[in-house]
Specification:
- The complex is a heterodimer.
- In chain A, strand 1, helix 1 and strand 2 form a beta-alpha-beta unit.
- Chain A has a single domain, classed as Phosphotransferase system, mannose-type IIA component (Rossmann fold, 3-Layer(aba) Sandwich), CATH 3.40.50.
- By secondary structure, chain A is an alpha/beta fold.
- Chain B is mainly α.
- Chain B has one domain: DhaL domain (Serine Threonine Protein Phosphatase 5, Tetratricopeptide repeat), CATH 1.25.40.340.
- Chain B contains 10 helices and no strands.
- In chain B, helix 1 packs across helix 10, helix 3 packs across helix 5 and helix 8 packs parallel to helix 10.
- The radius of gyration of chain B is 16 Å and the shape is globular.
- The chains are: A alpha/beta, B mainly alpha.
- The interface between A and B is medium-sized, with 19 and 22 residues.
Chain lengths: ~130, ~210
């Protein structure tokens, strides 16, 4: 099996994160490592830096990890999580500016072909282009 | 370090208790223009800080600030966790380098404000906590050494919160509302003001 970029899905809602991951799995099977998380530290709607760090490490690949987020706090907390990774991993994680569901599916499809992290991120972010 | 641990403990405790007591107000403000979780998020974060207060004040001041920041990052849950967390961690970093409190207060505070701006990719005028933090930084720089500095900081923070009312949000969840964010106090600006007022009140009550 070739190394593929890992995909992490970070939503305020664990249900949305899991549902998005299910859709990604249906598209790319198990060719791409996918991890997801959602919910604040009390289990309510929100995001949680520790869970994001864990998800990135679960989806880890030597080619890096693309993170798809939903709303503001998910992005800010994901950026914080990247800074809390082991130093050698930080530059291999990209938080994508893309819609979470479509972005995750497109990123995973691109990753499945063995593309680089830059290519995976670019494909996801095309969805946000005007 | 010329801040006594007991004094530091009183300050942190007062700030945390103020946020916890004001959680309903912050949530109400956030329900108007955000997603209504600012109060509960901040309360959770500052309860976690209170929970480890003894351990925090046992640390050197720079490490204590970093622990407060990291605790907020890990427990708040919203964007305000990394934003406030970055503020306190940057303050800790500045003290780890060569800065001292209270001598370098404006510079140390400025380092924290800079970290918030970088983390949020935000500038003053965008209806955020920076609309309180930046005016307060300007007051700290301009009025350092004045006997009424504490009172002037309190006044600056209060006025700055009021100034967020006519602003239109361009950052964060409130930006989705566009012009409808106008006419409301920004919840992050209000929580920054509450923290600053708690510190001012403590400094004035025990000179």
């Amino acid at each position: 099996m070739i190394d593929t970029v890992g995909i992490v899905i970070v939503s305020h809602s664990k249900d949305i994160a899991k549902g998005t991951a299910d859709m990604v799995h249906q598209m790319v099977g198990s060719e791409v490592r996918v991890a997801f998380c959602g919910g604040d530290p009390d289990g309510g709607l929100g995001t949680n830096v520790s869970l994001i760090v864990d998800a990135i490490n679960r989806a880890w690949s030597p080619k890096g990890v693309a993170v798809l987020v939903d709303l503001g706090g998910a992005e800010t907390n994901s950026e914080m999580a990247v800074e809390m990774l082991q130093p050698e991993r930080r530059s291999l994680v990209a938080v994508c500016n893309a819609p979470i569901v479509e972005g995750a599916v497109m990123a995973a499809t691109e990753a499945a072909g063995g593309s680089s992290l830059e290519q995976v991120k670019a494909v996801a972010e095309e969805l946000s282009a005007d | 370090m010329s801040i006594q641990p007991e004094k530091f403990k009183t300050l942190v405790k007062a700030a945390a208790e103020q946020i916890i007591a004001s959680a309903p107000e912050l949530t109400a403000l956030d329900q108007a223009i955000g997603d209504g979780d600012h109060g509960t998020n901040m309360k959770r974060g500052f309860q976690a800080v209170l929970g480890k207060l003894e351990a925090i004040v046992a640390q050197p001041l720079d490490e204590a600030f970093k622990t407060i920041g990291k605790t907020l990052v890990l427990t708040v849950g919203g964007a305000s966790g990394p934003l406030y967390g970055s503020f306190f961690m940057a303050v800790g970093d500045a003290l780890s380098r060569d800065k001292r409190l209270p001598e370098d207060l404006a510079e140390v505070f400025g380092t924290g404000v800079g970290a918030v701006s970088t983390r949020g990719r935000s500038q003053p005028g965008e209806k955020t906590m920076l609309d309180v933090l930046v005016p307060v930084l300007q007051t700290l720089r301009a009025e350092a050494g004045r006997p009424d500095l504490v009172a002037r900081i309190r006044e600056t923070a209060s006025k700055a919160v009021a100034h967020t009312v006519p602003m239109q949000a361009t950052k964060g969840r409130a930006s989705f509302l566009g012009a409808r964010s106008v006419g409301h106090v920004d919840p992050g600006a209000r929580s920054s003001c509450l923290l600053l007022h708690a510190v001012c009140d403590t400094l004035e009550s025990r000179p």
